[in-house]
From TrEMBL:
Main location: membrane
Gene: cbiB
Gene Ontology BP term (one): cobalamin biosynthetic process
Pfam families found in the cross-reference section: CobD_Cbib
Function, in words: Converts cobyric acid to cobinamide by the addition of aminopropanol on the F carboxylic group.
Organism lineage: Archaea, Methanobacteriati, Methanobacteriota, Stenosarchaea group, Halobacteria
Protein name from the UniProt record: Probable cobalamin biosynthesis protein CobD
Pathway(s) where this gene product acts: Cofactor biosynthesis; adenosylcobalamin biosynthesis
Entry superkingdom: Archaea
GO molecular function, one term: ABC-type vitamin B12 transporter activity
Family: Belongs to the CobD/CbiB family.
């Protein structure tokens, strides 16, 4: 099954490199976003009632994309094993976003030197902050921060469970990736302090992203050939409000030796200078390489799972054989 897993990953990342993000109208994540948008309303007059509804939304709605993904792979597999693998690869492709992230980051960084208004407009695709008053260096900082954070959200978070489960069951792997993407989408749309209905979604996302964020930080440090960047990042990793996003962002700041800041919220490596255009270009290359490292790390997990499954099967077969011949 490791060979099948490699083939499925190859398909998913080939599609990401060739296509990038599918059009919004044809993207299942956008369809799920419309469902979340329909649920984002006042169900109760008080915050407590809204939070209770939010618990149900957090628990139930990610099961919709998970069930759809598993069903598609199961139906395809029933026709032919290869069709099931292709379907699983397409599901994974729809839950990751590396090329689009790197392309947009590169566009923003370049525009800060040639067309500041375009940079302010384009950076909205990466961050939610108001860029109207940001300097060119602060816009580059925002883009680099987003590249680091979205390495975790847009790649590692869905890649990790998919790759670990794929040797065991492609439908389960597809379901896990789609479920995580659903949780991420809920958090991005509802997980604000001003939205009590999103409190549970934000907490669930914090739990789900704990490992991917730290794995993304490790991938960045390895890609930079600077493992000590992780140790230096510890000083600032907890400064952002999120318990997870600070790890890849701070590690990226340390690996690039630049200051990354969201004015009034956090300041990572504040004794360094804000990033130049050249720093931004280095960041794009580094995050891209970190994505490759993350794939390699998750494949190690998958290999361990496959070996464990094989050994379990051998032990089970030996036990069953021994029981059959026992008088």
């Amino acid at each position: 099954m490791i060979v099948v897993t490699l083939a499925v990953l190859g398909l998913a990342f080939s599609l990401d490199l060739l296509i990038g993000e599918p059009p919004t109208a044809a993207h299942p994540v956008a369809w799920f976003g419309r469902l979340v948008g329909a649920l984002d309303r006042d169900w109760h007059d008080d915050d407590r009632g809204q939070r209770l509804v939010g618990v149900g939304i957090a628990l139930v709605t990610p099961l919709v994309p998970a069930g759809a993904a598993a069903g598609i792979v199961l139906v395809a597999s029933a026709g032919h094993g290869t069709a099931g693998a292709i379907a699983a690869g397409v599901v994974l492709f729809l839950t990751i976003s590396l090329r689009s992230l790197l392309d947009l980051t590169e566009t923003v960084v370049a525009a800060t030197e040639t067309d500041l208004e375009t940079a302010r407009e384009e950076v909205r695709g990466l961050v939610g902050r108001d860029a109207a008053s940001l300097s060119p260096a602060e816009i580059r900082s925002a883009a680099i921060e987003s590249a680091g954070e979205n390495l975790a959200d847009g790649l590692v978070a869905t890649l990790l469970p998919f790759t670990v489960l794929a040797p065991l069951s492609l439908p389960a792997a597809a379901a896990a990736a789609a479920w995580v993407k659903g949780v991420n989408t809920l958090d991005s749309m509802l997980g604000y302090p001003s939205k009590p209905i999103g409190t549970a979604s934000a907490r669930l996302d914090d739990v789900v992203m704990w490992l991917p964020a730290r794995l993304a930080a490790v991938a960045i440090a390895v890609a930079a050939a600077d493992p000590l960047a992780l140790g230096r990042a510890r000083e600032w990793a907890r400064d952002p409000p999120s318990p997870n996003s600070g790890w890849p962002m701070a590690t990226l700041a340390c690996a690039l030796d630049v200051r990354l800041t969201k004015p009034g919220v956090y300041d990572l490596a504040p004794d360094r200078d804000l990033p130049t255009v050249a720093d931004g270009e280095r960041a794009v290359r580094l995050v891209g390489l970190a994505g490759v490292v993350a794939i390699a790390i998750t494949l190690l997990f998958a290999t361990a799972v496959a070996i464990g499954q094989e050994r379990f099967s051998l032990v089970r077969y030996a036990v069953m054989t021994a029981l059959e011949v026992t008088p």
